[in-house]
Amino acid sequence: MRNPESITYRYLISKAWPIILANAAVPLLGLVDTAVIGNIGSVEDLGAIAFGALIFSFVYWSFGFLRMGTTGFTAQAAGAGDEIEVRAVLGRALLMAVGIGTLLILLQWPIRLIVFLLLDGTDAVEILASDYFRIRIWGAPATLTNFALMGLLIGLGLGKSVLLVQLFLNGLNIVLDVWFAAVLKLGVAGIALGTVVAEWLTVALAGYLIFRKLQQNKIPNESFWPKARVLDKPMLMKTLSANADIMIRTLLLVFSFAFFVNQSARFGDVLLAANHILLQLISFAAFFLDGYAFVVEAITGTAIGAGKLVRFDLAVRRTSTLALVTAIGLAILTWVWGHLAVGLLTDITEVRSAAVDMLFFAALYIACSFAAFQLDGVFIGASFTREMRNAATLSLLVFLLVWWLLERALGINGLWWAMIIYVVARAGALLMYFPSLRNSITSVN
After folding, report:
1. 162 closest CA partner among 295, 303, 12
2. How far is Cα 210 from Cα 148, in angstroms, rounded to an integer?
3. Rounded CA gap, 125 and 56, in Å?
4. How many CB atoms lie within 10 A of CB 39?
5. What is the pLDDT, as a whole number, of residue 276?
6. Cα separation of 297 and 301, whole Å?
């Protein structure tokens, strides 16, 4: 365990930059998929890729607790020096990942039926998207397993390993997508097949890296996964409860952004498209802020496990300072030079003009969002998931109330103000629970 003084800004930046690069690698895959199909396929092929990506993004995001929950429990076990529990946390997470992934495969017919009833595409697009779905669903256990493996790597503070795994996944995926879709002329089916193969091979790589790391700290002749610890009933129930809380919190967060997009559509196609462009800028900023949030998850979790209150306070304060400075810098860049990014993302004059006119709102949102990101990281590291669920519920109610009060009077500006107040409310709601979280740390200093 490092001394509290070792949590310098340089140390934190060294931990954050691999996570930032790993996050930034994710959207590159979508761009390549679009470019491949856009050059060799038809409009229907592009529509099918869009539908397929939407379906699996929503399905897999719903199970994001496999990453977040694993991170918190791993960090706390590592901080307490309980290496058996670290392995047991992984064992429980893998059991759930494989179980849920297998269930998704078994239920693929009703899932496909429901999602395509909700989507409104042409027959040609839906046929191609259905083919994409039938292939991509076989990667479900691998995708969810990778969530759990990444969660453990983040919980142990192994940011460079996270970067290696993410670059391997996305790099291999890009190569396979080009090979299957373009070279072998498999089109949309080739994109799905390339993704599935890349996901399963990434499980092998991440599993090897983790097994090698955990094996170093295992006592000789000790079972890697003691059955009694992995299947410990109180810990299983605690894990299931925490994951349920995170799932509800995530779905509420997804709903809020979906509601924002849906309300944007009420103002016409131009403003809908403009807001979509601005959300891409916000997502780009999130790559940076998530880097600090992931770092604080690991450090606060280990500090709580070790009973190091001083280390906890220092980690929260210094990562938050870095996140604040970064958020302000990104907000200034968005406001001053955002028009250049908008110009690269669209050449439609009306959409470009509308997006530039609303750049201030996107910049303000980015500046205000750092606190919500950081507190999410602290609460995940502490496994205070019930409080995260409650805070998500309260902040969503604030969002809907402000939207109801402002949209009629201010139109699209009112919707943006509601969104900005919402991200502030997310932080404010979590801050209400922060004193009890901090007081729960049993100091051994």
Report:
1. 295
2. 11
3. 16
4. 9
5. 79
6. 6
Q: Could you tell me which of 293, 314, 258, 308 has the C-alpha nearest to residue 372?
A: 293
Please tell me the distance from the alpha carbon of residue 230 to that of residue 93, in angstroms, as a whole number.
Answer: 10
- DSSP calls for 166-191: HHHHHHHHHHHHIIIIIIS--HHHHH
Q: Is the pLDDT of residue 89 over 90?
A: yes
Q: What mean pLDDT comes out for the span 42-49?
A: 72
∠ CA 129-133-137, rounded to 5°: 165
Mean pLDDT, residues 308-320: 93
Task: List Cα–Cα distances, 282 to 202, 264, 276, 320, 414, in angstroms.
Answer: 28, 16, 10, 19, 18
Element (H, E) at 155: helix 140-155
Asked if 224 and 214 touch (Cβ cutoff 8 Å), the reply is: yes
Residue 255 CA to residue 166 CA, distance in Å, equals 27
Give the model confidence (pLDDT) of 417-426 as tens digits: 999 999 999 9
Query: Residue 51 — pLDDT band, cuts 50, 70, 90?
Result: confident
144 or 120, which is more confident: 144
Contact 301, 74 (CB under 8 A): yes
Cβ contact 378:295 at 8 Å? no
348: which residues sit within 8 A by CB, 6+ positions away? 273
**Sequence-separated (6 or more) residues with CB below 8 Å from residue 28:** 170, 174
Give tens-digit pLDDT for 319-359: 999 999 999 999 999 999 988 888 877 777 888 898 899 99
Distances (CA, A) of 402 to 1, 256, 263, 326: 46, 13, 13, 28
Q: What is the DSSP letter of 219?
A: P
Report pLDDT digits (tens) over 142-193. 999 999 999 999 999 898 999 999 999 988 988 998 899 888 888 888 988 9
> Which H or E run contains 375?
helix 359-382
